Amino acid sequence: MKVCAQNCGKNDAGAFTGEWTAANLVDLGISWTLLGHSERRSLYGETDADVAEKVAKCQEAGLNVILCIGEKLEEREGGKTDEVNKRQLGACIPKIKDWDKVVIAYEPVWAIGTGKVASPEQAEETQKAIRAYLSEAAGAAVAEKVRIQYGGSVNPENCAELMKQPNIDGFLVGGASLKPTFMDIVKTAGPSKMVDVWPLYEAKMEKEGCNKAAIDAFKYTFGVLASGKDVMLPETKLDPVESLPTFEKLRLKPDSRLLKKTLILKLNGGLGTGMGLEKAKSLLEVTQGNTFLDLIAKQVEWMKKEFKTDLKFMLMNSFATSADTLEALKKYTELGTGSDLEFVQNKAPKVTASDLSPADWEKDHSHEWCPPGHGDLYPAMLGSGTLDKLLKKGYRYMFVSNSDNLGATMDLKILTHFVNSGAPFMMEVAERTDADKKGGHLAQDKASGGLLLRESAQCPDADEKEFQNTSKYQFFNTNNLWVDLSALKNLFRKFDGALPLPVMKNSKTVDPRDKSSTKVLQLETAMGAAIQCFPGASALVIPRSRFAPVKTTNDLLALRSDAYTLTEDFRIVLKDEREGVPPDVKLDGMYKFTDAMEKMIPNGPPSLVACKKLVVEGEISFAKDVVIKGTVTIKNTGGGCKEVPSGTYEDTVKDRRQETAVAADLAQTSYRSFSQPSSARFGRRRDTMNFLAVGVVIFISLHVTLLRDSSRWTFEQLRQLAPVAAATPEQRLRKAVGFQLVDKYPNATASGRNFVKAASPTESIRWIRAGMSDVRKKSYIICASIFVHLVPLHPVQFILFENNGKDDAPKVAIKVAMLAGMYLQHLVVAAGFFRPNHRQVRWLSFGIYLYFTCFLVMTSPNLLDGKEVLQDALTNVKYAVISRFFLAIVFMDTELAVGGQLLISAVVVYTQSSVLPLAACIFDELNIYCSIILLSMILEFLLQSRVQALLDSAEAESMLSSFRRMLRGVCDGDILLDSNLQIQGSPECLKHLLMSTADMSGKDFNRLIASDEEESFQRFIAFSTSTAKNNSQADRHAPPCLRLSLRGSMDMRVAVDMFHVPLPNPSGAEEPYHLLAVREDAESRAPQTARHIPAPGVVPVLPRQTPSTGSRSSKSSSSSSSHSSKSSAKSCAWQNFPELAEMTLMVNVRTPQHNVEQVTLSCASPMFSLRKLAQPTDWETIRKLLESRADQAENGLQESGPGSIKKLQFRSPSGEKLCARDVEVEACRAHGAWRIRLRLTNFEKERHRSPMQGIHEAP
């Protein structure tokens, strides 16, 4: 119930007797007023402009307005209803800034007190038109949320039909509210659940011992439910967040002093019932015998030692996790105990879904309560007294995260950024991937422009597709939050102790294990949703290393695998080769609980470091040393548990039922065949035919299965062996060579060193040979996958078409046995039962040579008829030569070919010498043998060259990353040039330097250089390249540097410092690529015809003496005098500043030569910019500080304290590099405007090494 004024004046405070200003009403505690009522318009002549002015005054005072509009009878009959409403609204819309404080009341003047009543259809039609006009004039978001009431003679008879209309949101009741029948209108609208039911909840919570903050918080959430307020966030209310600051681009110095004011808080209220646990989820073992709590405690202990401070740590436990947690943490005494270590989350009553009454369950009253979500963090801190206690002890900031997120540790850099930003609340967000699309995301409120969080429970079904659009909504909440505790306390004061967090309804049964029990609603809030409550709240994009939560056994399996690693500060982070993307694990529903998952991995989890997605369907167990790569699906469509054998599974689908099903069919068939009585000949014959038929079926099924499972892998490997143009050199290396660089040679990547040249020649050769061996291995497996289907055809061909009774039975049996041996060799490899290593592949390949040799012996012609023998010999030679060339092409192994082909040649000479002359046989075979060996050598050389080229490509990628890391934060950007000095890509830094939006890709870089400096640039590139080639990797220093000018737009010359590193050509060619890093000299942006302004180094400015440096005054005086005599011409002010306007000298007349101790210069034009004196990495902080001081001075605000800058450094006239350690900042007025005066003291020579120490100018 609120009291509402009927009118408000349009004037401010003053001599306006009888008028009430908006400020008067607010002072009296009145929060609402009517404006523009029809009687005010008709009787007192208020115009649309008058009403608009009143609305503006109410908006300024924060007073809620019920804005009345409506047409007269003659306007209604003239068809001008919509025109009048638009005119009256249109005058007020520009004055309204906050639509949450405005309600529109449509009151048809012709229906007030006249006896004429608008029908529900007429009222709906008009109010629908009003909402449409609002959408057009103020936006769809405003039109959707603003309340439009109806005020045309509402009575108990018509209110029921009126309230059914979708665009009538309430009533403005006049004279009828003074009659007893007004209660009939109220009853028609429905009784208030807050009035009828809330006392029951309040009594129940007080009886349970809940504190006032908990009761106030639940009163708010239940009030939202009882009001029927729509808690959904449709697309029409949201905009995507386009960009946010990122952790990687933060350029600031961490301030460890802030740790004394900071609390680390972990949420530890979850039982993990979704994973089959009956205790705190944080007690679940994660890795190396450590639970979540163990790792959290060790993280805190490590941070205390690292930062050398007593870091404050606390837990928010629930009533179900408190005891277990405190018991587990007894061994970590440094963390604290009791209320210094924990406060307990509140609990909330469950709501009966049917009538919204408190849930009642006689069997177990504990089921009547539920946790209110982690949004209860705030009222729990307030109600337990923790918030006031922390503020009293001087704690100002809080970092809060979930206990199951071991990547969320105190980061001093983020803390400093949060404090410097001045934001009261900051959320850490990460970029969404397909694995995150079903979770909540960050968005922007269309109405207010502020950030908000939308959870999946707040998304309407119609918007689910957009909700999961990761390219539109790019960021999700990691639940790592930073909160200003003082701002939180003020927010509680503003909202009377209950933060207005969005409320989410979860439908459950009162007993979770009894689905037939009473249906209830659990009301929950999310702590991240508070981002919309704090004005000025912000967000920061963090790397995935700070987000490693465990919500399901899918997450737990991935976290325990080798895709993650435990850091020295006890964080679990993704390995670098995962590039920030975790493996996507989808386990069968039977593994929902942890005990079932443990049975699946008795020997530890499989390797997932190279896994993109793993899907497990059915009951299986992993053997030891199982490696998953790419996308793998493992099924068990049969009964019982099947083991996944050791080995590597890459981009495949494996059904472990197949091999056991085949064995079972064979056993069953054998039993049926040999258990029948031998007396029945017909039965024996029938069983034999059945046995053969089953054998044929099994044989065909086996080969169909092999074709299905191996075809995808085979064609993928054939595609990879082809010369594929991959996106990056490292991808080309992995695709063509077929081995993981990171797995086998961890020192070869991510170290920033030359990939091949950094190693010894012997090691480089070993890498190349390893790559070649890997190609041979995959080539052999591909051949085995193909020939396993071709070999069974040879016995049939031999028996039916070639033998024709020539060979006796023993010879036929030997041939069939050899074919069977070759078939089994191919079968075990193709079916994945045996994955040979590189050495075993060579032996198996040599075995094929032996098989081929034996076939030549077995198929040699008999010495019967000369003509027939000669014809058979020529045919065998023809097929033998083709087969031998094929073996050389497949294996690409010269060492193997020398021995194997020599053996075949000897057998051919022996078998053919009985038909042809021996000399002819030897000569022919020598030609064939030499040709095959030459072909094998050429193929091996090409393979070696390709592997070498790909290793060079990886070297180029490694050097590129190393160079960029070294110059990060020092230079403005980098430019990649090919061997012809043409620009690769379209570097943004170059566009910025040249002030151009043109596409630079493919352009000649020489054309961008000033014409008089092209020759110098060519010499610089040649010198740098030759130096890099001649120096060993160990002798290589920082890249050489050159100062040159680029030709920008508007005839500008832009001077830059350019650093150069030659890179190996990614295509393997001899001519190198060139990587240039550039740093702009900001003072150089002037037209070529402009007057030269001297560098700041020639300004003869001496520091003013202070008492702290007075002991050095005599020394300074003598040095100043000496310097003055030596370089008077060089430091002449008139020579260096032709537009000098004023000079003030402070002279010490007590010195023999009257030394000048202070010089103040004033020039008609700027001498130089402060940007030249500042370090590049400090400039942004200095700029913000000075601009803030100027703004405060202009607004007449008092300074909160003396301003200071860390340091300024420059070169003196003598060329020495000086650094002013103390720089005081003061605002002053000069020439009628505010300026900033900097006082530089405590000068000394710069002793620290430059970030670019060792960079030298090219000759």
UniProtKB/TrEMBL annotation:
Cited CDD domains: TIM (cd00311), UGPase_euk (cd00897)
Pfam hit, one: TIM
GO molecular function: triose-phosphate isomerase activity; UTP:glucose-1-phosphate uridylyltransferase activity
Bias (Low complexity) ranges: 1108-1128
Pathway given in the UniProt record: Carbohydrate biosynthesis; gluconeogenesis; Carbohydrate degradation; glycolysis; D-glyceraldehyde 3-phosphate from glycerone phosphate: step 1/1
Region Disordered: start-end pairs: 1081-1128
Biological process annotations from GO: gluconeogenesis; glycolytic process; UDP-alpha-D-glucose metabolic process
InterPro entries: Aldolase_TIM, Nucleotide-diphossugar_trans, TIM_sf, Triosephosphate_isomerase, Triosephosphate_isomerase_AS, UDPGP_fam, UDPGP_trans
Gene3D superfamilies: Aldolase class I, Hexapeptide repeat proteins, Spore Coat Polysaccharide Biosynthesis Protein SpsA, Chain A
Key words, A-Z: Gluconeogenesis, Glycolysis, Isomerase, Membrane, Nucleotidyltransferase, Transferase, Transmembrane, Transmembrane helix
Catalytic activity: D-glyceraldehyde 3-phosphate = dihydroxyacetone phosphate
Transmembrane domains' residue ranges: 689-707, 779-800, 812-834, 846-864, 884-910, 922-943
Record note on quaternary structure: Homodimer.
Job of this protein: Catalyzes the interconversion of glyceraldehyde 3-phosphate and dihydroxyacetone phosphate in the glycolytic and gluconeogenic pathways.
PANTHER family: PTHR43511
Family membership noted in the UniProt record: Belongs to the triosephosphate isomerase family.
Name of the protein: UTP--glucose-1-phosphate uridylyltransferase
Species name: Effrenium voratum
